[in-house]
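FAQ: What does a ligand-bound record look like?

Like this one, built around 6-O-phosphono-alpha-D-glucopyranose:
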Amino acid sequence: MCGIVGYAGAAQAGPLLLEGLARLEYRGYDAAGVAVQGDAGQIAIVREAGRLENLAKKTDCGLLLDGCCGIGHTRWATHGAPDKRNAHPHASPGNRVAIVHNGIIANHRALRAELEAEGCVFLSETDTEAAVLLLDRCYARLAGKPPRARAVQALMEMAARLEGSYAICALFADQPGAVYAVRRGSPLAAGRCSGAQAGYMIASDVHALAGYAEAAVFLADGEIAVMTRDALRLYDAAGKPAARPPEPIDADAGCAKKGGYAHFMLKEMHEQPRAVRDTLAPFILRDGDLLHADLSAAGLDEAALLSVCRVLLTGCGSAFHAGLAGRAMIERLAGIPCEAELASEWPSRLPPPEGTLAVVISQSGETADSLAALRLLRAQGVRTLALVNAPHSAMAREADRVLLTRAGQEIAVATTKAYAAQMAALGLLAVRLAAAKGRLAHGREHALLRALLDLPETLKCLLGEGESMKRIAREIGDAQSVFFIGRGIDAAAAMEGALKLKEVSYIHAQAYPAGELKHGTLSLIERGTPVIAVCTQREQAERMRASMAEAASRGARCILIAGEGCAEEAEGEVIRLPGTEPLFAPLLAAVPMQQLAYYAGCARGNDVDRPRNLAKSVTVE
Ligand code: G6P
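The answer part, i.e. the structure of the complex:
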């Protein structure tokens, strides 16, 4: 799982590849490398372990590389340690063929054994090296054919032998000025660059192309692309020429700056009000004095909503947590049975019953487990709705319907604004489903939508009050473990709080439905163990008090994040949330927990935007 980029054109490739990789670094930052081809065809490879800045230093931001054609890679290690040896590009002897790869080649062991038996020597532990050595063999066997047809045929033969998922860019030493690419499962987008960079660029996502290309062609599964300075040629899996119209891309995508904030995470936390507002605005209309929701632009008109008998929400990480909260919102408001399941667990479940609307939630729209769940559900004949933040993503293209969150590009690995936008969109979906099912009394739809539209202002106030969380973050900095508890929808909020804290601060954090604390976890509570309790639902306040008392009497240091009317008689420290419709309050509860994670991460000197071992977009299963 990684980010790849390729360029063939009039400009020096090095700096362009480095810039492209910088924009793809969210996909992995264990190692980075580039291969640049000179006019005579010779391929020079530079690789460095660690962050891209190491490669940038080594190559003087790409300026030390000579050639107008090249490929680059930023790695999230799957096979082999994150060291220089395993960094991409990988090449066949004498750098005859060099490739970069995003994905996992599932049958790499069998291929390696076969190639070793034929005398090939492997220099790395990666699955990718099997692909390049295989490609080299296929290419050698086709000697004598015209160059392009030979390379396309070799890529087809290699692809026919590979199992798993891959996006691969390749250079051939005897074909100067051409970048070849092939994909299955993992995404690739190619666009024409103009001006001084005239030529073509290809990358794992459009962020790398933005500002260089105005439009991009998204390669279909099995397709092969050939890029030279003057042309982009596509071939289908059978080697027949293919054509696809380019789609416009946003020129600002990929140019995210910290805008005066110390970290992207902090900036993105402060962008939550706008993310929520922009996500809701296209779907909430005024009808006389009343507000009403219309999701027909997302393919959910009255008839489509009326036929929904069951909702399945799925995703990974924070997106799954949003799904858990969405389950509570939809069940409570619309009275429709709902299930939330981790996308990675979906393959082991029975197909959902007829009348199910499956909502696949994902910021990137590329997460492999979520994409696999989407494909499986579609194959089972289930109607799918992609709730995604990336309009050009695979999920947006493959789902039956798309509901876009408009959080804007998110850079920090730990999601904040995209999660807030997902929560708002799910609230909107719950209200719309409830209205379609006739579950809302006169004026209730308006009141709920008003509450959603007021969230941005409320979030703004809350974001201005980070001081107590900063202090608490300092105080819990040495904790061995932090526990998060909540009931019902607040259990979902607690899970998100725990995930944020562990990914950014590396403090062990675990979330439990509060009622479960006494069934085992209490044994872990010692004097001073922090327990963060989330309570935004008044009807749960008393039982939450009891759970906190159980923990406090064993020495826990309890901190309550409380919705309106939920903190009466509470003992210990209380973080009070502003008033809102209770079902939407968990969106607000996320803010102090994000602040806790952020300040704890900073206090420990962590790279909060790029926590160790993680990547923002996990494109392997
Ligand atoms: C990674 C990120 C998480 C994110 C999850 C799902 O694990 O670190 O923050 O929630 O992927 O990503 P998605 O793009 O599908 O929302």
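Follow-up question: can I read anything off the structure? Yes, for example: The chain has a mean pLDDT of 94.
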